[in-house]
Amino acid sequence: MTARCDAIGLVVSDMAASVAFYRRLGFAFPEGAEEQGHAEAELPGGLRLLLDTEEVVRSFHPGYEAPAGGGRASLALRCDDADEVDALYAELVADGYHGELKPWDAVWGQRYAVVRDPDGNGVDLFAPSEGGGTPG
Question: Which one, of 135, 41, 34, lies nearest residue 89 by Cα?
Answer without folding.
Answer: 135
